[in-house]
Design a protein that fits this description.
7-stranded antiparallel β-sheet, 5-stranded antiparallel β-sheet, single chain, about 240 residues, globular, 6 helices, alpha+beta
Length: about 240
């Protein structure tokens, strides 16, 4: 398959067109960012680990009948994926209250709520990616109510499965962020990637973070933590 022009460069990935109309090539980057791109660094080896991790998780989700854009891994840092129309929305699932939501609600980080919290953000960095509700999303033409219902069910199933998968691997899934896209045939699928860059993962015994919080808060060992997540998952699968 021939790689063609660059379609878009994101914070941590490049997306290229290919000679297959409905297929793109995604190349992961070693660049790491935090605090709305204020903090940036290149962490050597992160791209390769994230490529492996996301591929592993997407394959496991597909086994559960949860549709993703992933097709195949074709290089150390590269994946072939279905070309999708990505919704300009971020969907966040919180099993514990941490990060920005803990600050917003003025609760102790790590608080375990009685319910799973689902958050919706307008993916518009120019206005700070504000939190919105489904009615805002529909009013802005970002998604339909039916699409949002489909996504919510996919989020519930994904969270239920990933909590179990990570728990069996000795990792607690605190929260995660996901994006969704429409395939050329109109099917809703999980897009982007699932890695420690967009998941909050804790060691259940020590509560040591195994995710991007290690970079955000200068804890060090970022790539080592990501490799540890991959190692624990591989041992359990």
């Amino acid at each position: 398959m021939k790689v063609k022009e660059l379609i878009v460069e994101g914070k941590d990935k490049f997306v290229y067109a290919t000679d297959a109309e409905d297929t793109v090539l995604i190349r992961f980057k070693d660049l790491t960012t935090a605090f709305h791109n204020i903090k940036k660094a290149v962490i050597k080896g992160k791209a390769a680990v994230n490529c492996q991790l996301s591929a592993l998780i997407f394959r496991k989700l597909e086994e559960q009948g949860i549709a993703t854009h992933y097709i195949a891994t074709v290089g150390e840092c590269e994946q072939l994926c279905t070309r999708v129309d990505v919704l300009p929305l971020q969907f966040i699932v919180r099993n514990r209250i941490a990060g920005s939501t803990a600050r917003m609600l003025d609760v102790e980080p790590g608080t375990k709520p009685a319910n799973v919290i689902y958050e919706l953000r307008y993916n518009n960095p120019g206005i700070g990616c504000p939190m919105i509700n489904e009615h805002h999303a529909v009013a802005l033409g970002l998604a339909t109510y039916d699409e949002l219902d489909t996504i919510l069910e996919m989020l519930r199933r994904t969270n239920e499965y990933l909590v179990s998968l990570f728990d069996a691997s000795g990792i607690e899934l605190v929260d995660f962020k996901m994006e969704f896209g429409r395939t050329p045939g109109g099917r809703m699928v999980i897009a982007d990637a699932i890695t420690p860059d967009n998941c909050r993962l804790w060691d259940p015994v020590t509560r040591e973070p195994l995710d991007k919080d290690r970079y955000r808060f200068d804890l060090g060992g970022v790539c080592d933590a990501y490799r540890e997540v991959l190692s624990r998952l591989e041992k359990n699968i």
